[in-house]
Amino acid sequence: MRNISINKIGLIEHSEADKLMRDLQKKRIDNRIEDTLLICEHPEIVTIGPRAINDGIKAPLGYDSTPVDRGGGLTWHGPGQLIIYPIIKWDLEGESNVKSIISLIEQWVINALEKLGIKGTRNKKMQGVWINQNKICSIGLSFLRWTSRHGFTINCNTPSGRLEGVSGCGLGAETTTSLSALGYEIKTEEICESLISTIDTINRTVKND
Fold this sequence. Notes:
By secondary structure, the chain is α/β, with parallel strands linked by helices. The protein has a single domain, classed as 2-Layer Sandwich (BirA Bifunctional Protein, domain 2). Helix content is 23%, strand content 29%. The strands form two sheets. It has a seven-stranded mixed beta sheet with strand order 7-8-9-6-2-1-10, with helices on both faces. α3 crosses α4. The longest helix is centred in the middle third of the chain and has 18 residues, at 98-115. It is globular and about 40 Å long.
């Protein structure tokens, strides 16, 4: 079992969060810190993963963007979106490959949504968490010595049309959306607390900072 320190850092620029993640990942690899969750929000920006860069895919006009080294294509970040960055050394039973780790995170999100009366599901072809034909949770990780950086997003009550205007991970526009757009009035704080209360999905012992 592992101890996880939960750090709610609030609104932070993506560039600052990226520096913090890199520093914490090195410290975790060296066992200078315990496993850590960073929970935050970003001002609006579209991150561009290697797959999108290789395919020549850019953010739509009118969106600030930045390249990143996590898996996947385009991912929108902005107001009303909960972002979780797990700086975790994945070395427990059942964590032997990236697919199994992604599956654990998907199940964690599904369990958290279920506590709020929302039925999330997996998609057989694409990672993330879905509600019917709409994606509301994107996952993109980067690993060094099986210690993760980057993480996942849950779209709670994002501004109308902004998230939907970005075609992420090869999906058509409007496929990725928010809980509020699907008729669920859920605050980011509610999702956050539900994730913390269901963290046993990936862990047994939790420490709150």
